[in-house]
């Protein structure tokens, strides 16, 4: 069904350009502006989105013509992928389309940093996801839990994949979730933290789905978190380092990011709550000697987060102010100073029992 809708949108864009040419008009493509001035935060939905400001990319315009050509090349390539129901990486696409135009010394694309933004342009112009265009990126993110899925005809049980867990692909829209026996989703920033929790079978003891993001969560990981939450109404708890960059990782999972505001509807999970690590936890659990001195860039980022609408509540303001005042931060691994199983047997169970979350 999604393939059909994507094809229809691509064909509609192409037919409009052909009609403009036939009627003597200067063909153009309307592309929503992705700058900060056109990004809106909705308190009711808890998500970022694009406003209604558009720019026009014209064929007969010296400043626009190359980008216009590049946009049509990428659109045509994606149309071929969707028609054949195959996928390609954004790197594959770049090399497939890179060539010198006949009779000139001009290349279609000189570097991949030229083609990547065109993909986003198509996303916003057509109101589709990159994944709907059958474009993929490297896998990032791992998951484990008592869940069975169907992926391209194969049944996969996340609880029976050994120590590695299931590697989350960049395209998860076509995955069918067949069975879920879990009470919540726990997202953890560090792969080391995921390994600790997985080895201790935290997910099995507490009926959880455990997700490791390995830093900033990839689109595929955020899509899967959203999908699990939306379809099965599972609470989502996020655990990161106690610093402004870890908290931004939580922010992106919860409300979306400025760069991808146009796909926040599918990527963000506004109900997500933060389970730690906080600056208050450093003092509560006696981790002062394990803390790290915050750099100027950490403090600057914390001050920026204080201005975000979704960090305006009293608890978040207190934590951000505490970091700025004390000038410290801490990693999840600092909890290991209390014992290797402290995080699984004490810290997280206490947080869950007391519902000690930040929202």
Task: Outline the secondary-structure elements.
Elements: H1 2-22, E1 28-32, E2 39-42, E3 47-50, E4 54-58, H2 65-84, E5 88-89, H3 90-97, H4 112-126, E6 135-136, E7 142-144, E8 147-151, E9 154-157, E10 166-167, E11 176-180, E12 184-188, H5 191-199, H6 202-205, E13 208-212, H7 219-232, E14 236-239, H8 244-255, H9 264-267, E15 273-276, H10 279-284, E16 292-293, H11 296-305, H12 314-326, E17 328-329, H13 342-354
Parallel strand pairs: 5-6, 12-13, 12-14, 14-15
Antiparallel strand pairs: 1-4, 2-3, 7-10, 7-13, 8-9, 8-11, 16-17
Helix pairs in contact: 1-2, 2-4, 11-12
Note down, in words, how this protein is organized.
This protein is of the alpha/beta class and 359 residues long. It has two domains: 2-136, Arc Repressor Mutant, subunit A (Orthogonal Bundle), CATH 1.10.10; 142-354, 3-Layer(aba) Sandwich (Dna Topoisomerase Vi A Subunit, Chain: A, domain 2), CATH 3.40.1360. Helices cover 42% and strands 18% of the residues. It has 13 helices and 17 strands. The strands form six sheets. A six-stranded mixed sheet has the order 10-7-13-12-14-15, with helices on both faces. A three-stranded antiparallel sheet has the order 9-8-11, with no helix packed on it. Strands 1-4 form a two-stranded antiparallel ribbon.
C-alpha-based Rg, rounded: 23 Å
The low-confidence parts are none
Oligomeric state of the chains in view: single chain
Strand order of the largest sheet: 10-7-13-12-14-15
Shape: globular
Number of DSSP strands? 17
The helix tally amounts to: 13
How much of the sequence is in beta strands? 15-25%
**Name of the CATH architecture of the largest domain:** 3-Layer(aba) Sandwich
Give the class from helix and strand content and strand pairing: alpha/beta
User: Would you list the SSEs in sequence order as H and E?
Assistant: HEEEEHEHHEEEEEEEHHEHEHHEHEHHEH
What name does the CATH topology of the largest domain carry?
Answer: Dna Topoisomerase Vi A Subunit, Chain: A, domain 2
